[in-house]
Amino acid sequence: MIIIKLGGSALTVKDASTPTLDEENLDRIASEVSYYNDDMIIVHGAGSYGHIYADEYKIGDVITNANEHLRRIEGVCKTQTSVQQLNHDICQKLQQKGIPAITIKPSSFIVTNQKRIAVCDTTIIKQYLENGFVPVLYGDAVLDMDEDIKFAIISGDQIITYLAYDLKADRVILASDVDGIYTDNPKTNPEAKLIDEVTQDTQLNTTSNENMADVTGGMNGKIQELLKLAENNIQSQIINAQTPGNIQKAVSGQNVKGTIIK
Amino acid sequence: MIIIKLGGSALTVKDASTPTLDEENLDRIASEVSYYNDDMIIVHGAGSYGHIYADEYKIGDVITNANEHLRRIEGVCKTQTSVQQLNHDICQKLQQKGIPAITIKPSSFIVTNQKRIAVCDTTIIKQYLENGFVPVLYGDAVLDMDEDIKFAIISGDQIITYLAYDLKADRVILASDVDGIYTDNPKTNPEAKLIDEVTQDTQLNTTSNENMADVTGGMNGKIQELLKLAENNIQSQIINAQTPGNIQKAVSGQNVKGTIIK
Fold first, then answer.
1. What CATH code is assigned to A2-261?
2. Mutate to test the interface with B, among A71, A81, A120, A148 (most CBs of B within 10 A)
3. Which helix (H) or strand (E) holds B2?
C-alpha cells in the first residue's frame, strides 16, 4: 500500500484571499495519480481552503475566555466546512479519472492531544481498502483533549505519518510545490543544491529550508515526520507536483527528481 | 438533547433528474432551526442527491459477479460524494444562521450488517455536543458486513433512531413533506384524517401511508422506527417542514399540526 500526499499548495491558489481551486493542476494531478492501480491512500492538504479560517480564528491557540471559546467554535465550523468543499471537489475529480476515491473525514474520527493525533481508529480505512476503495483524507480542524486549546489543526503530513505506521505502508510520496530538500534556500542562494537522499545523519540547514515551507508544519516539520518513518523502514519521497509527469513517474516506480528520505 | 430530522424532500428538489437544492426552503428551515439554543443534533435526508445514484447503481442489492462489484464501488463513491455536497451546503447555511453546525460523516464511522447499523461509536458526537457544537449527520452509502451486498444505504431515519437511544435524546422532531400520519392516503381519500397521536395500539392502514413515503424506508418504516423509540420513552413528532413556522414552533415547544408518537 502506498500513501500519496498532495500538497494544498499544488491544488489550491495558495495566496488567494478566498478559497480558490487550481483546477488545471487538480485535473492533471488526478490523471497522474490514476496511473497507480493498487492499494493506495490519498491525503491532501487544506491549502487556501483551510489556512484562511484557521489563521483568522486562531485555531490551536490558548482559549482565555468564553467569548474566545465561542469564536473558536465558529472558526472550527467554518474551517471544517471549507476543507470539506475542497475535499469534495478533489474526490469528484479523482472519481472522474477512474479512481474509487472515498472520503474519510478526519474530524469525524480523529482527536488530538496538544496538537498530536491521540485518537484515530483506522479500522474503517482498512475496510475501505479491502473493498477496493481509495480512502482520501485531508488536513482538518479537530477536537483536542487539551482543555487550554480545545481545538487543533492537523496537517496532512501528520496524518500520513500516522497512517503509514499504523497501516504499514510500503512507501510514501509527498507531492508538493518544491523539488525536494535543498542544502540551502534555492530562492535566495543560487549555490543551493537539491539533496537526493536524506537520512538521520544528514546535516540540514533547517532555517533556510523553513522558507520553502507549506503553511502547516513547514518543511522542517515535514522532514522530522519523514525521518521518524524512515526509522521504521518506511521510505518516503518528496517530489514537485507542479512539474508535469512527476507524480505519474513516482507512482509507477520510475526515477524522479526529488529527495528520498530513508 | 433534541434530534431534528430534516427530510431530504424538504431540502432538495425531489423529482429532479440531477441533484438540486431547494435553496428557498433550506434558507427558511435553517432560520427556523436556529430558534433552538440548547443541545441538538441535526440529521438530514439525502433527497435527490442520494437517490439518483443509489437507484442507478442498485446499492444494497446482492452482488453476483466482479463487474457488479466494481460498478457498486463506483456507485458508493458517487453517492457519498454527492450527499457530501448537499451536506456541505446545508452546514454552510446553518452556520450562516448562527448554528455551530459540524459534519459527522456517517460513512466514515458507521458500518451496517444487512442494512442495519452494526458499528457506530458515538463518542466523538458526544464530545462535539459537550464542546457546544451541533453535530450534523445524514443519509449516506456505507460499508455493510454482509458479503452478499457489501454496501448499503442508511436513511436519516435509521440514524436518528440509533442516536436517540444511544445518546438518550429527550425528543425527536421529524420535519418532512407530510403533515403527519393519516387514517388513509389524503391524496386519494378526501375523508382521510390526520392522527394527532400514534401509539403501539393505533391501527394504521400502512399500505396507504406508504404512498406518503419518502424514498428511503417509507412512512411505514418511519412509524416502526418511531414506535421503537416510544417504547423507550423517547417521544417523537412528525411535522410538515413545508409549512413555514412549523419547525420554529416545534423546537420552541409550541403546539404544531402533526402527529406525536408516544
1. 3.40.1160.10
2. A81
3. strand B2-6
